[in-house]
């Protein structure tokens, strides 16, 4: 039974690689029901669930996958990454950040720099400051029954936590550029840090311009550049940026969603 389940899992991964997502998901479901414990297959299916916004299902699958035989350190790193993203999308950003911080302390990688850097921006976006300060420590603490526990830390006043968090966000995303100063996501994260966290739009644009030169189709960068174009009164340029973003492949870690782009193009008279 497990042998045939593994065959289905392998076939599902091939279909996934060819972009035949619906067929792949069906086979993954059959393989899991048949008892496959192939960790690569489980994580491949988890990625599809993430992209389909099925975060609760993805989270449950990742908890199961952590016990799969043959889970290598590299795959476990990916598992923790995806689990943290699920936490973020389910409103548990603090939990996701703590998990990635522990992962990054053990093994810094480009992927942890990208993901944790972005989650810091999400956590300390000026638009969320009032909500952050209003949360109690009990609300911000990890669940006792969580399968990925994090150590408790002595609580500081929320205002002080915010100030330190803003500093940490800037330092971390600056540090990412020391790791690789030509990574377009690192550049975008630092641009968003200045734009969303520090409110320094002029400084932010330097990094958005560098990011788009490296990766012309980067969705979030295109979104923020469209904001600058509109502020300059250049609607045509804003529409061009948005249309380029519309063609991209959106992920759970995009600040800008396809719905945002579609709505903005419609507002500007460029939608279908």
Protein described:
The chain is built from 15 helices and no strands. It is an all-alpha fold and 272 residues long. The radius of gyration is 20 Å and the shape is globular. It starts with a helix and ends in a 5-residue tail after the last helix.
Architecture blueprint of SSEs:
Layout lengths: L1 H16 L3 H13 L5 H13 L3 H11 L7 H17 L3 H14 L3 H14 L5 H6 L2 H4 L17 H22 L4 H14 L3 H14 L4 H13 L3 H12 L11 H10 L5
Shape field = globular
Kindly estimate the percentage of residues that lie in beta strands according to DSSP: under 5%
- Roughly what percent helix? over 70%
User: Sheet bearing the most strands, described?
Assistant: none
Order of helix and strand elements from N to C terminus: HHHHHHHHHHHHHHH
Average predicted confidence as pLDDT? 92
What gap, in angstroms, lies between the N and C termini?
50 Å
The whole-angstrom Rg is 20 Å
Record field, number of beta strands:
0
How many H/I helical runs?
15
Low-confidence stretches: none
Based on helices, strands and strand pairing, what is the structural class?
mainly alpha
For this entry, give a set of tags.
272 residues; mainly alpha; 15 helices; 71% helix
Kindly summarize this structure in a few lines.
71% of the residues lie in helices and 0% in strands. It is mostly helical.
